[in-house]
Each structure stands twice: as C-alpha cells, then as structure tokens.
Design a protein that fits this description.
Elements lengths: L4 E7 L5 H10 L3 E4 H8 L3 H11 L4 E2 L2 E2 L1 H10 L1 H28 L4 E5 L14 E6 L2 H12 L3 H9 L4 H7 L2 E4 L4 H20 L1
Parallel strand pairs: 1-5, 1-6, 2-5, 6-7
Antiparallel strand pairs: 3-4
Helix pairs in contact: 1-9, 2-5, 4-5
The protein binds adenosine-5'-diphosphate.
The site of adenosine-5'-diphosphate has 13 residues, from α1, α6 and α9.
C-alpha cells in the first residue's frame, strides 16, 4: 500500500480551483470538495438535532440547515460560530481522513483538497503539497461576472475577507497557470501531476 500524495488547491476566487480539481479527478485522483461535504453535513440527522437544540426549529427547513438563518446567527455572534465549527470541523476532518485511507487501499496516487479557504482553515497542514492556481484578476472577474453576475465591488468585498493572494502564492509549493482555455489548463494539470509524483519519488 502506497499512501497517496495529498494535494491542496489554493488561489483567488474564480481562479479555477474547482475546475482544476475536476482535471485531477479525470486523471484518477480522489477529490475532497469542501463545499459539497459541508452541504452533506447540513442534512445529517445528528447535526440537525444538535442545531435545533441550540437555535430552535427555525434553523432547520425541509430537513436541512437553513443557510440564511445560520449565516445570520454566526455573523452576529462569534461564540456561536465557534460552536458550529466545533461541531462540523471534526466531522470534516474525519471525512478527509477516511477518503485518504480509502484512496490508499485503492492505490489512488493523489487526494485533492478543494477548499475555498485552504490556508485560512489551516488545511494546508494536512497537505503534502499545495498548488496555487494563478489567474489574473481581470480574467477571474470576467468569469465571475459570467457565472454569478458579480461586479468589481462584489469581488473586492469577498476578497477582503480572505488572506492576501500574494501570501497564498508564496506559501504554495507549485503554481499552475489558470488562464487560457480549459483545454490548456487541463494539459497543465495533467503534466503537473506527473511532476509532483516524480518529485515525490526523487
Ligand atoms: P474557483 O473554484 O477558484 O472559484 P471555478 O473552478 O469555480 O473557480 O471557476 C470559476 C468560473 O470560471 C466557473 O464558472 C468556471 O466554469 C469558469 N472557468 C474556470 N476555468 C476556466 C477556464 N480555463 N476558461 C474559462 N472558464 C473557466
């Protein structure tokens, strides 16, 4: 059994992190998608029970945590945020651990950690290497405009809540150019995976 290399993906909003993760999946890697895993937890019966106990029935709508209600509660009160994170983070940690073990059992070469706040959440500490997806701001803005109708102010507002990009860039082990067509980026990602595996066995 060979342990898979755990690869974190960092980069600006709209840089193409999830797209890059998808290209790794095509190459046979297992992908941990943080947003998807959180959404899954939001329907778990034990999580729902706990949240109902804390915040009442209105925090759950149609068998799912109500994101708007939860966002408001944790935005207004940091101790409530800590409480929610104390419930969810260990479950997410366990899930990553299980995915890595499964990948090892199935001889998967790499597990990809796609988390929007990789460094902010200290998930880089669980990674063997981190890749920075480097995409110029104008291109990111163009993509986000097309996907979600964001304007410059919306992007700036959301970026302000994150670590500065140059810090993420500096802390990463590899950089992949996220500009250009998806076809070009796919080629870069597949070559980078070969490079990372070669570096590991060197
Ligand atoms: P992130 O996960 O970094 O926020 P995504 O992978 O979700 O970025 O990409 C943001 C948006 O840009 C999505 O709508 C995606 O389809 C689009 N996109 C990503 N990469 C490319 C690319 N190389 N060319 C064109 N559009 C892209």
């Amino acid at each position: 059994m060979i342990m898979p290399v755990v690869i974190g993906i960092a980069g600006g909003i709209g840089s193409g992190k999830s797209t890059v993760a998808g290209f790794f999946a095509e190459a046979g890697c297992v992908v941990y998608d943080a947003d998807k895993e959180v959404t899954r937890l939001y329907t778990r019966p034990d999580v729902l029970d706990q949240v109902r106990q804390w915040w009442g029935e209105e925090a759950v709508v149609d068998g799912e945590l109500d994101r708007a209600t939860i966002a408001q509660i944790v935005f207004e009160d940091e101790s409530q945020r800590d409480r929610l994170e104390g419930l969810l983070f260990p479950l997410l940690h366990k899930r990553r651990h299980e995915m890595i073990e499964d990948a090892a059992d199935n001889d998967v070469v790499a597990v990809i950690i796609d988390a929007p706040l990789l460094y902010e959440a200290a998930l880089d500490e669980e990674c063997d290497v981190v890749i920075f997806v480097d995409t110029p701001r104008e291109i990111r803005l163009e993509r986000l405009r097309a996907r979600s109708g964001w304007d410059e102010a919306e992007l700036a507002r959301r970026e302000k809540a994150q670590l500065p990009l140059d810090a993420k860039h500096r802390r990463s082990d590899y950089v992949v150019d996220g500009s250009g067509s998806t076809h070009e980026v796919r080629g870069r990602v597949h070559r980078l995976l070969e490079e990372i595996i070669a570096d590991r066995s060197a």
